[in-house]
Specification:
310 residues, alpha+beta, Rossmann fold, OB fold (Dihydrolipoamide Acetyltransferase, E2P), 2 domains, six-stranded mixed β-sheet, 27% helix, globular
């Protein structure tokens, strides 16, 4: 039996169906991301699991027990919000210890578990600092430590890295995945960031308009998208008509080729992006996006006539 099972979980707000009969089985220790654009139902799904939003129909079971019949505090879940929701008047230690105090954990055990959690997220030296004197990345680590210190059965992450700048967000993705692997906590992440979901997850659940479009490993969803929506949402893609059939081709799979082969086209735009060049090529089948790795050799210029293949 799977660790967490959602069966036809549905949420309606009046006539609007926010989550439409979502079914998903999550194994113990797995890292799963709910991925999709704003309004697709991913956050509502997380809130139903947490108990902050009441499901309209369907079921959610955790280790065979009915999750929806429990009060939020009884579900044993650790939650990290987008805003971190730290107490500004409390030190790092006090913030992390708060959940243990509410559960009546003894002082000696609290001190031990807080120290362990702070060491895990690399904040042992900042135990007496207040949130206002910490960077966004440090505050995010405090929120994560506070969620993990209660030893939750499931860790719920609601866009936890969205307030960080691009470089720090990438660093925190690596740290978050390492921490999750270290503690082995089953984790559900809500995000609209495709790169983040693919970097962190064992599986991604791609959602659109309240429905699940595909559940798969990140590489499988990217390489073999189940629907045109998944293909377009998981990175750049080209939709081309070839011999009467529509095909989807990733830009990095397209190459420039020699005269006499491939499809003719003209370079409409060339954009330098550091480790690669991004091309827009006008062809008889429409505009095609091409990614050419920056290997230091000569590359076509804007206005050049080229031929492409894949």
């Amino acid at each position: 039996m799977s660790f967490l099972v959602l069966d036809k979980l549905t949420k309606r707000f009046g006539d609007h169906v926010a989550v439409d009969a979502l079914s998903l089985a999550v194994e113990q220790g797995e890292f799963v991301s709910l991925l999709g654009p704003s309004g697709c139902g991913k956050t509502t799904t997380l809130q139903m699991i947490a108990g902050f939003v009441e499901a309209t129909s369907g079921s959610a079971t955790l280790e065979g027990r009915d999750l929806l019949s429990m009060r939020p505090a009884q579900r044993g879940l650790g939650i990290v919000f987008q805003s971190y929701a730290l107490f500004p008047h409390m030190t790092v230690t006090q913030n992390v210890a708060f959940g243990l105090e509410m559960r009546g954990v003894s002082r000696a055990e609290r001190e031990s578990r807080v120290a362990e959690a702070l060491a895990l997220v690399g904040l042992a030296k900042l135990a007496d600092r207040y949130p206002r004197r910490m960077s966004g990345g440090q505050q995010q680590r405090v929120a994560l430590a506070r969620a993990l210190v209660i030893r939750p059965r499931i860790l719920l992450l609601d866009e936890p890295l969205s307030n960080l700048d691009a470089k720090l967000r990438e660093e925190m993705q690596i740290e978050l995945r390492q921490i999750q692997r270290t503690v082995g906590t089953t984790t559900l992440l809500v995000t609209h960031d495709q790169a983040e979901a693919m970097a962190l997850s064992d599986r991604v659940v791609v959602m659109n308009a309240g429905k699940v479009e595909q559940v798969a490993r990140p590489d499988e969803a990217y390489e073999r998208p189940a629907t045109p929506f998944v293909a377009a949402f998981l990175g750049k893609t080209n939709r081309l008509m070839v011999d009467g059939a529509e095909v989807t081709v990733r830009p990095e799979r397209i190459r420039f080729c020699n005269e006499g082969s491939g499809m003719p086209g003209r370079v409409a735009a060339r954009i330098f992006q550091g480790n690669h060049w991004l091309y827009h090529v006008d062809t008889g089948s429409g505009r095609v996006i091409v990614i050419r790795q920056n290997a230091g050799d000569a590359v076509p210029a804007e206005g050049d006539n080229v031929r492409i293949a894949w």
